Amino acid sequence: MHLTDGVGDNLVEFTYNWEEQVDGVWKGRSIGSILCSAVTMIRTLQQLLATRKDITAFIKKAKSKKPSPKLDVCKNFDNTKLKPVLPDNAPIAIVLFAGGGGIEAGMVEAGIRPVIAVEFDPSKPELSRAIAKTHHHNFSEYGCKVFQLTVQEVAQSGFLGFPRRPDYLHASPVCANFSRAHTAKAGKGIETADDLSAAIAVAEAIRQLQPRVFTLENVPRYQNSQSFSIILDALELEGYSVDYSVVSMDKFGLPQARRRLVLVASRGFRVALPTGAKSCGWYEAIAHLIPTMSDSQLLPKQRQAVEQFLATNEPTPLLIQRVGGRTESKYKPAHLPCNTILRSHFTDHKDCNRSKFADIWLPDGTVKSLSIEGAAILQGFPGWYEFPNETATAGSIIGYSVPPSFATRLFISAQSKLLGVSV
């Protein structure tokens, strides 16, 4: 089973082809004139090992819908540097604790329109405003409105101006008090009144907005918190089916070993977490960018790391952190995913820019400084997302974000259920 494309009158037309046995004879079958907007979903359904029956059912349903005139020309097919064009009837989403919009980037790639994003951290007001500005820059064309308020404040207003019964509601509550770094520094994670009030606000959003699908992402330790229990109780009381697990996102095609708690809940049908994809090494993901990166020099501890590696291994490109690395290897060989990317890699203890945050050592002795663009790819951002020039702001967006490439897989899997396709 495969897709083919042809060009006529400056339009790209896709056809879905397969063979089936009729009276002992194999015969070719096809469905033609497939909308470009449906192609990404079809390819992902194939990756998820959906049956031909499920895929053809999805195609027929997609063909039965009236297309938006904007989708007549598939100008952005297979080109992540061009932003997706969404139809007027695209599913809508609300995002709480939005940050710079990593989850929204994944939603857009999955054909979902973010309409409201809530982003404000009173502990870092200037940074939060800068992040919200970047969010607006990237998603305003989709009609997304950024509320620069806390989630608690919009809950107190009764979610005034929010659409009821949206297709999707997502929350990534602030995770600082549950992160491994905080626990190592403080001796134990301390759940605060702000954490609990944030969870209560999320629970209230579930009750009042009644989304068709609710998703949540956080660090693994969040699942042991009272905050998480508050959200789970709200979902149970409202009749949602819930599936959650700690996933390693390098098992979903992200070139980064990032472990996160992911929850998906739905009502009236069941949405499960997506299945995994082929793992990818960091070098494969950003090799094309390395020649354009700035030259650098290794710090003494980085040189020691290289010598340690070469003592027992053949030379290969190494990605070496300049900061951190207390609990994990400071370097990563080319074939492995990189270490978890954190906001702290890009800023010092005063929240000022770091000029360098990681280096790439090549077997010929060349050393390159990992760029923001490279870090963004390692975090799964599409090429069309535009970052601010300030390293601290751009790095914060990257470090805080749900990896968009994982989000795309999550929401395409959910979309297949909303459209009545079983995968």
UniProtKB/TrEMBL annotation:
Matching Gene3D superfamilies: DNA Methylase, subunit A, domain 2, Vaccinia Virus protein VP39
UniProt keyword annotations, A-Z: Methyltransferase, Restriction system, S-adenosyl-L-methionine, Transferase
Keyword Methyltransferase included in the entry's annotation: yes
List of catalytic residues: C175
Domain of life assignment: Bacteria
Keyword presence, Transmembrane helix: no
GO BP, sorted A to Z: methylation
Classification via Pfam families: DNA_methylase
Family annotation (SUPFAM superfamilies): S-adenosyl-L-methionine-dependent methyltransferases
Enzyme class: transferase
Molecular functions (GO terms): methyltransferase activity
PROSITE patterns found in the cross-reference section: SAM_MT_C5
UniProt family annotation: Belongs to the class I-like SAM-binding methyltransferase superfamily. C5-methyltransferase family.
This protein's name: DNA (cytosine-5-)-methyltransferase
